[in-house]
Each structure stands twice: as structure tokens, then as C-alpha cells.
Amino acid sequence: MGKDCSNDSDGGFISASPPPALPPRPICPNPRDGDQSSTEVLQSTNSSAQSSWVSCSKKYVIMCTSCGGFGVLLGALYIALYFILRSHTSSLHYFETVPTYIAALVFIITGILMICFGWRKNRFGFLVKLCGGCCILCAALCIVITVATIVVHMSRLQSLHECVYQAQRHSCTCTVRLPTVLQTSLNSNQLTLQSKNIDLGYEEGGTKYTFADTMDCDVVHGALYSCLRALFALSVIGILVALATGMLVYQLLG
């Protein structure tokens, strides 16, 4: 009863029991799921890299624009200072070791190049190298102007004395004021100091400086001396701007 038998052609009986069950197959991952996960990882990596690149690009845009703006502003201030000096006197060789408009021109060129570097498509290799050379030239010019202004020109103006204005020629002639000579003498164990003023006139060959095309002699120790102080301050700021711009150009080259 419990067995299912079938009749064979030879008259025998064959039991028809079911075959043993197959073991369960291992679950294979869907290749589409793997592709989808790897795609998501790549997309996240690309998005993070793109966001970091965008932030870095924005940083360089801001820095290039800032350095370029400062360079153009310094150039404009140099030009304004040149015209102010020119309006008070035509004897600019007493105030400029390097012509002010040369420093202004180099700063303006450097500033325009740096502003152009704010866009990545304008960062050509030869332009970046040219801007680096301009930064070195700006720093060198500012150093020369700073040292010459504080050591030579301002010291000369401070030593001028007895200025005489010539109305017909519209010029002011000043002589150099020399320090007082102290003579010492020993008299009965007492040290006495006697000061004697030395007056060097034109007849004695004293050094004199003539400032042409001036309104009066007050501008020598007034407006002209203030212009020298402003020139010194601009040159110090120019050194800092040139160094900062040069470091940024070095990063752009890398």
C-alpha cells in the first residue's frame, strides 16, 4: 500500500521512490546591484573632488583678484604722487632715484596680469613667468626707492638751511646746514667748551640746491617733505605686495 510499484516488461516490479533533494544553491549577488554600488561610490568621489576643486579655484580667484587690485592701486598712487611732486617743483632729481612713473607702470602691469589669472583659461605659462619677473622687478624697485628716500633725499631736505626765493626765476635756492664745531680748551684744570658757528656762503663754496618752478620756499620743508614720507610708505607697502604676489605666482606655476 505504502509503496508505488510499476510493472516491468519482464514481469518484475521496480520501486518508483523520488530522488534525493538537491542542496540549496548559494545566493549569487546581482551584478546590477554591484554596478550600482560602484557607480554610487564613483559619483560620491567625483562630487567630493569636484567640490574641493571648486573651492580651491574660488580661493585662487579671490587671491589673484586681491593681489592684482592692490598692484593697480599702488601704481595709481605712484602716478598721483608723481603729479603732486611735479606740481610743486620741476627739480624731481632731488626726490627720485628711480622715476616714480616707472614703478607705477610695473605695478599696473603686474596687477592687470594677476587679475587676468583669476580665470583659469588665462593662466598661460609664459604669462605666469612674465608676471613672476614683474614681481621681482617691483620688489627691487621698491627696495631701491625705500633706501634712497630715507637715506639720501629726506636727509638732504633736513640738512637744508637759509633758503632764498628768487621771484623772477620762480626758484628757491637753499644751502646745506652743517653741524656746529666744538672746540675744547684746557684752562687751569677746567674743561671749557666753546661752540663756534660756521657759515658757508656762496663765496665760500657752500653746497647749494636750487628747486625750480616753486611757488615759495615753504614747500621745501612742507609739501615736498610730506611727499617723500608718502613715497617711503608706499614703497614699504609695495615690497609686501610684491612678495605676496610672487608667492602666489609660484603656486600658480606649480
Helices and strands in order:
Blueprint: E1 5-7, E2 13-15, H1 31-88, H2 100-116, H3 125-159, E3 160-166, E4 171-176, E5 181-187, E6 190-196, E7 208-212, H4 218-221, H5 223-253
Antiparallel strand pairs: 1-2, 3-4, 4-7, 5-6
Helix pairs in contact: 1-2, 1-5, 2-3, 3-5
Write a short abstract of this structure.
The chain has helices at 31-88, 100-116, 125-159, 218-221, 223-253, and strands spanning 5-7, 13-15, 160-166, 171-176, 181-187, 190-196, 208-212.
Describe the structure.
This protein is an alpha+beta fold and 254 residues long. Strands 3-4-7 form a three-stranded antiparallel beta sheet. Strands 1-2 form a two-stranded antiparallel ribbon. Strands 5-6 form a two-stranded antiparallel ribbon. It contains five helices and seven strands; from the N terminus they run ββαααβββββαα. A hairpin with a 2-residue loop joins strand 5 (181-187) and strand 6 (190-196).
